[in-house]
Design goal:
2 copies of one chain form a homodimer. With 242 residues, the first copy, chain A, is α+β, with helices and mostly antiparallel strands. Chain A contains 8 helices and 11 strands. Chain A binds a DNA duplex (19 and 19 nucleotides) through helix 3.
DNA sequence: TAGTGGTCTAGACCACGAG
DNA sequence: TCGTGGTCTAGACCACTAA
């Protein structure tokens, strides 16, 4: 229960934790309406303002969404969000571009040491490894290598290579109940290998932007390692610092 | 004055605008304490809660800083913030590294067309152009080309090359009253020119991470264009997506 | 029209920092 | 001890949505 003793954590913080737990445990699912602020206040024995403060902060963290007149919802990956929240490659005019994906391979294997450490797995664990090529504006631009823990993604290892959707995060949510909530990216400049160069239609050794992403759920469990190599001929990676 | 008529903008929004104007116009300067919430509420004829909501949002935008028991302050660039808020290069263990700078040149020139368009200047305007090399962990790692409008930065064109401090944003604030508040960065992979390669102690044609930054003040006026070329031998660019 | 979130108020008490 | 921000309450009214 909530405690409002002297040295204790503020009520609205405790309520945030409670809501996060409700989502992590699946009691509230992406897209669901949660009870109204007044209802929650009564249930929790606090004022509406306190519930409101908790919800406000979760909305700022993209965990919940408010819609006036309708209610408060658990955030989910419409393709809009999946795409433009996590995909930072734009064309040189700064316009967002819809990528088109071709799966090159999709198989199970044992994780390398770095893979298992980045995913927080025991070394040598079984993982699913997906390779795909993505076109932007009809030009081959990105090569992605995606590594997922076999638990719970194992069944993807049996999937035909062409059965994977363009928007993986939407699929993780719908098929596996896993919502990607935050990610950390590391960017480097590298030289294209011969294979990469030929797939991307570039001279061998051409410079590529390497983006290594670790994607995590709401409770910060890493669930996907994604290494993208991207030509920046006609596109670039864009980010904003506030 | 503030208006609370039917279709009008919420009071706390109007108060935010007012506070931002106070800062942009120099009535409140970085590091200053602003009046207390209760005082502001009385002055503005609203409740403390409304002032509080305005301040809360400005704190979230890094415009103000609250310190319990002391007051609310206009945010400023201590070296901590200047460095780690805008500088995203870390070593391969993910540790922040303090860069050490050497100014290679510092002169006035006419802006190219792209420079003037990115800085929102008339084409051919006079600008100050600074080139410097930065070492991380004693290794030459970054080459920066910084372009600033002569208005108000002109006097930097006359400065001896070695008189520039390591932390430029702190200097912009103290010498010119300009606080960098937000920035947009574009990242690309490029090949090192011969000059770049020799300065960074790399083979010619080595891949470099190019970071083009447009830095802006609180009112979104662009004031600095900075193009950095960075070897990612032992370091990388790190960003987090929430 | 009923129910939701959005804004705003007035006032209580706590936690922290400085003198 | 006093003044600051930090938390929490109780209740008013507005704006929007759906039935």
């Amino acid at each position: 229960m909530l405690s409002n003793a002297k040295g204790s954590i503020p009520l609205y913080m405790q309520i945030k934790e409670l809501f996060v737990a409700n989502i992590s445990d699946g009691r509230w699912s992406p897209g669901d309406v949660i009870p109204s602020e007044i209802q929650l206040a009564q249930d929790l024995g606090v004022s509406q303002g306190t519930v409101r403060k908790a919800i406000t902060e979760l909305v700022e963290n993209n965990v919940l969404t408010r819609r006036q007149g309708r209610g408060t919802f658990v955030a989910f990956h419409d393709s809009e969000r999946a795409l433009f929240h996590f995909f930072h490659i734009v064309d040189n005019k700064g316009h967002k571009v819809l990528p088109e994906s071709t799966t090159l391979s999709c198989r199970r294997k044992r994780a390398t040491r770095t893979e298992s450490s980045k995913l927080g797995l025991a070394s040598g664990s079984s993982v699913v490894c997906i390779e795909r090529m993505r076109k932007l504006d009809d030009q081959p631009t990105l090569l992605e290598t995606i590594t997922l823990p076999s638990e719970p993604f194992g069944e993807l290892g049996n999937v035909g290579a062409c059965d994977l959707p363009n928007m993986l995060y939407e699929m993780y949510e719908q098929k596996f109940g896993i919502t990607i909530h935050n990610a950390e990216e590391q960017l480097r400049a590298v030289s294209a290998s011969e294979r990469e160069a030929s797939l991307l239609d570039l001279p061998a050794g051409a410079p590529l932007l390497e983006i290594e992403r670790i994607a995590r759920t709401l409770d910060n469990t890493p669930v996907e390692l994604r290494v993208s190599r991207c030509t920046t001929r006609n596109h670039h990676y864009r980010t904003t610092i506030f």
